[in-house]
Specification:
Number of helices: 9
Number of strands: 16
CATH class of the largest domain: Alpha Beta
CATH architecture of the largest domain: Alpha-Beta Complex
Radius of gyration: 19 Å
Number of domains: 2
């Protein structure tokens, strides 16, 4: 096992998401060294050069294109490698292509004796997180996905807009699959400790069911809308990656809805999906049970069943 350099990050995959994540991390000041890897070496070198040219406006950092041999001591290895989601394609449609890509990427990481955190960002993130756990052989707490961190941010943003309140004061989670079966956990949603329904009424809104249904649908369809308009989504997820890295590097023990393999919570076992978890320097330190209605629990189990079927039919590990 190689000793971890807490100031080093590796990004595998330099497409839209990988490059945007690398740019966000350069600006964060969290790291002093960043290595970029891509199947196209020229692409990795070009991104490293381009981002490096902004360093005079940021903080000193070494940014370079490298190989798998360069990642062994990275504190966090971010995997964005994979085919992108095309217009009209669901995240689960991507699964076969990207599982095959992971079968070449993850064993290369495992061979290097890495002791850092493996953060999976490529889609479908839940299936690929499960795949990465199985292929890497790393302890489960060190392998997790970006999950519904971005979906939850979208939910907070839309609720903030709806209520004319700072979205940072909104506490609400999207749970389950990062995809079409995701669930807005309305039962536990609040604005600075005030239950959501009460806060809505304070702001003059009373048609709760209709508004909540519309906002949840808008969150779920956000990626499809963006992909239809500009062919890819990358800024929002890049900021989500930066946020997760902050929680790890600073050992913040922040509660984030990351995708991790579940073991019995809400009757779900042996599938990776998103639930709020304590995230710190050792990765996922604990799951956080939140209050769910019977309907939400049922939807969560259905989401798990959707993912389990894909794992059984496609992943074959």
């Amino acid at each position: 096992m190689v000793e971890v350099n807490d100031r080093k990050v590796a990004v595998i995959g330099c497409g839209f998401v990988g490059a945007a994540s690398a740019f966000a991390l350069m600006q964060s000041g969290l790291f002093s060294e960043m290595v970029l890897l891509d199947a196209d070496q020229d692409k990795a070198e070009g991104e490293a050069l381009d981002i490096s040219h902004g360093l005079p406006f940021s903080k000193p950092m070494q940014i370079y294109a490298g190989t798998y041999d360069d990642i062994s001591d990275a504190a966090i290895i971010i995997v964005t490698a994979g085919a992108g989601q095309k217009p009209g394609e669901t995240r689960l449609d991507l699964v076969k292509k990207n599982v095959e890509i992971f079968k070449s990427v993850i064993p290369e990481i495992a061979k290097r004796g890495c002791a850092g955190i493996l953060l999976i960002v490529a889609n479908p993130v839940d299936i690929l997180t499960y795949t990465a756990v199985k292929l890497s052989g790393f302890p489960e707490h060190r392998v997790f996905g970006s999950g519904t961190v971005l979906d939850s941010a979208r939910l907070k943003y839309l609720l903030g807009e709806h209520l004319s309140v700072d979205s940072r004061s909104v506490h609400a989670f999207i749970i389950g699959e990062h995809g079409d079966s995701e669930i807005a956990a309305w039962s536990s949603a609040n604005v600075s400790g005030v239950p959501l329904h009460n806060f809505c009424e304070m702001r003059g809104y009373f048609a709760h069911e209709e508004a909540m249904r519309k906002i949840a649908e808008d969150v779920k369809n956000s990626a499809y809308e963006i992909i239809e308009k500009k062919k890819a989504t990358y800024y929002g997820i890049a900021m989500s990656v930066r946020r997760i890295c902050e929680a790890i590097i600073r050992d913040e023990k922040s509660i984030l809805p990351v995708s991790a393999v579940q073991h019995g919570s809400y009757g779900i076992d042996g599938v990776a999906l998103s639930m709020p978890a304590v995230v710190g320097k050792f990765g996922v330190e604990a799951q956080v049970p939140i209050e769910l209605s019977a309907e939400e629990e049922q939807a969560l189990r259905k989401s798990a069943d959707t993912l389990r079927k894909v794992i059984k039919d496609v992943v074959n590990l």
